[in-house]
UniProtKB/TrEMBL annotation:
GO terms for biological process: L-arginine catabolic process; spermidine biosynthetic process. The keyword Magnesium applies. Belongs to the Orn/Lys/Arg decarboxylase class-II family. SpeA subfamily. This is Arginine decarboxylase. The modification N6-(pyridoxal phosphate)lysine is found at residue 129. It is an enzyme of class 4 (lyase).
């Protein structure tokens, strides 16, 4: 078979494309198109593509043995078997990845401490705000028991969650770091945590909080342990830089911290002060900035010990900021990437603090970090279901390429006529020809690269609020068919009645995402995975159009199962009834009761009642044919004849939805046509 000249894949793999359409690498092996999405950049060491062309999870990172990868398409199919009424969108959680991230963080600090002869330990906490889901918080505390891994709370609800989880699962040495603005009730809760034996530390974010702590401590008879948050001068660039520096939202400048120490000393309570905390912002881009902030904070720590007699200080809490590489570029010039890994991060902190403390002849403190995003992002992915794909319409009044070429030739000929000697005349024809040439170039490129709007079973506002709120870009890719070339440049459209309900910015500064044509003849659905999405999205989710959260599936590694995994739990997302209730409706009275009375009057309650019941007890997202039929049959409200009619309607609707993209499939590959 004759071969074309070998192009280079986005992954950097040299390929040969044969006339029969197969793709072969230099060694004669089939290659996949995962490289188009830079999976080897942002995905290492947890994500890969297998020989079947399916996205896979490597739960043990680089230590994952061959054949132990979890095929995401098979996971989705197993979840649908586990719970027949499961709906999309859904979150897949891989707790083994969570454990691996936690182990890797502690290994990085252990190595850095050993190599630099640092004389104290590392003891981290997870900031609950990053993902308050019960399973995640409990997993992290359980996985971190041997490390005395603790929790950080920034509000009263989070404090109660942390108190409960640490009481049941944690090592008694684990920190409970109490951040955020505090009133008397917050302080009473934190003191109560100490009263039941938890290692709670209240961090002053405002100087006035000290008086509240002193009063409540005296009132309850519980002695606190306190820390102070430092407002450092070190500032990071980009989106998150506004939360740091002298104009930062939280903390005290160094001179006010020293005043707190003086006040405590005057009250004979300086022994309460144990910790200095700082946070310069999320996604710190370079280790130089990490080290600079740690050095500045360590200098304040040493000053407290040497000049203000805070000799019982024990801990330097370096806050959050440990970033991850969302686009795989390992770049310091992007808000969604960082130029380091776990090892470099840990080494920069340990070295900076050791050097500063040794210079001041102060004992090395226990090192703490509040790394949340870097812990939970990798273990969770959102699975989106494609509904239809529609090509972007062309403007009807646009000239065809042939018409544009004719007009250009006209202006070129006119500029060369003997009578066209005036400079203004030459200029006029030249400018018009230039404009038409640009339009022709754009039109040809547009015809060869039609953009398709993929309608997804998704609410951007509920599932990916950072995409809408701060224009964040998560890595996205198809779950399957990655051994086929994705030929359609696409944007994603959600279900909401809002013009912002779309995704048209992707990693790599791309404005489209390469996807495959939807093909109903293949059977099954076409799924997209939103990767590295385990941080903040659930916590920040809103209810625009009363779309809610997704179904959640917990996937655990299993050496006994042939697939290498087991579905531990599969939970349906919030139902329509639950979502309406959050808006202060009494659903039974305000919704069902009103509709029922009117329907009974008209004599249609038998039909209407079933529709209302199904609508309330399912998620508000669209239900595809198989689920709808099984769900309604399960409710017992329809007989076999009704079910057949409904199935027929759904089949017709599905065909109608498929028509636009079936008609638009080109007879030749876009690349060849271009």
């Amino acid at each position: 078979i004759a071969a074309k000249s070998p192009p280079l894949l986005a992954s950097g793999v040299r390929q040969t494309e044969y006339m029969d359409g197969s793709i072969m690498g230099m060694g004669g092996n089939k290659v996949n198109y995962g490289g188009l999405y830079n999976i080897q950049g942002w995905g290492a060491p947890y994500f890969t593509v297998n020989m079947e062309g399916n996205l896979c999870v490597k739960a043990d990172g680089q230590e994952t043995k061959a054949g132990q990868e979890m095929d995401v398409l098979h996971v989705i199919q197993a979840a649908k078997q586990k719970r027949k009424d499961i709906q999309f969108p859904m979150i897949l959680r891989f707790p083994n990845v969570l454990k691996h991230r936690l182990d890797a963080l502690h290994a990085a600090f252990h190595t850095a401490i050993s190599r630099t002869r640092y004389t104290n330990t590392y003891q981290g906490v997870f900031p609950v705000k990053v993902n308050q889901n019960r399973a995640i918080v409990h997993d992290l505390v359980c996985f971190g028991h041997a490390y005395s891994y603790g929790l950080e709370a920034g509000s009263k609800p989070e404090l109660l969650i942390a108190m409960s989880c640490l009481t049941k699962e944690a090592n008694s040495r684990a920190f409970l770091v109490c951040n955020g603005y505090k009133d008397a009730e917050y302080v009473r809760l934190a003191l109560s945590a100490r009263a039941i034996g938890l290692n709670a530390i209240m961090v002053l974010d405002m100087e006035e909080e000290l008086d509240i702590i002193i009063h409540q401590s005296s009132k309850l008879g519980v002695e606190p342990v306190i820390g102070v948050r430092a407002k450092l001068l070190t500032k990071i660039p980009g989106h998150y830089g506004s939360t740091a520096g002298k104009h930062g939202k939280f903390g005290l400048p160094a001179d006010r911290i020293y005043e707190v120490a003086k006040k405590l000393k005057g009250l004979n309570k300086l022994h309460w002060l144990k910790l200095l905390h700082f946070h310069v912002g999320s996604m710190i881009p370079t280790t130089e900035l990490v080290a600079k902030a740690a050095t500045e904070a360590a200098d304040i720590y040493c000053t407290l010990v040497n000049k203000y007699d805070a000799v019982e200080m024990t801990t330097l809490d370096c806050g959050g900021g440990l970033g991850i590489d969302y686009d795989g570029t390992r770049s310091a010039d992007s808000d969604i990437s960082v130029a380091y890994g776990l090892e470099e991060y840990a080494s920069s902190i340990v070295q900076a603090v050791r050097t500063t403390c040794d210079k001041a002849m102060v004992s090395h403190p226990v090192l703490c970090t509040e790394s949340g995003q870097a812990m939970v992002s990798h273990h969770s992915m959102i699975i989106l279901e494609s509904l239809s794909a529609i090509p972007e319409p062309k403007d009807d009044d646009d000239d065809t390429p042939e018409q544009l070429r004719t007009k250009i030739q006209h202006h070129y000929s006119a500029s060369n006529l003997p009578t066209s000697t005036a400079v203004m005349d030459l200029q006029k024809h030249g400018i018009e020809a230039y404009k038409l040439a640009k339009k022709l170039s754009k039109r040809i490129a547009g015809d060869a690269n039609t953009i398709y709007n993929y309608h997804m079973n998704l609410s951007v506002f509920s599932l990916l609020p950072d995409v809408w709120g701060i224009k964040w870009r998560f890595p996205m890719m198809p779950v399957s068919r990655l051994n086929e070339e994705p030929t359609r440049m696409s944007t994603l459209i959600d279900l909401t009645c809002d013009s912002d309900g779309k995704i048209d910015k992707f990693i790599g500064n791309a404005e489209t995402l390469p996807l495959h044509p939807l093909d109903p003849e293949r059977g099954g659905c076409y799924y997209l995975a939103v990767l590295l999405s385990g941080a903040y999205q659930e916590a920040l989710s809103n209810k625009h159009n009363l779309f809610g959260g997704p179904s959640i599936v917990r996937v655990e590694k299993s050496t006994a199962a042939a697939t290498g995994f087991q579905i531990a739990t599969a939970d349906l997302g919030p139902t329509t009834e639950e979502l309406i209730s959050t808006m202060r409706y009494n659903v039974r009275q305000d919704i069902v009761g009103v509709i029922q009375r009117r329907a009974i009057e008209i004599g249609v309650w038998g039909m209407v009642g079933e529709a209302v019941h199904t609508g309330l007890t399912t998620m508000p997202y669209l239900i595809m044919e198989d689920h709808a039929a099984s769900s309604w049959k399960h409710q017992g409200g329809l007989d076999g004849k009704d079910e057949s009619i409904i199935k027929m309607v759904f089949r017709q609707v599905s065909r109608l939805l498929c028509l636009p993209f079936m008609w638009s499939i080109p007879s030749k590959r876009i690349g060849s046509a271009a």
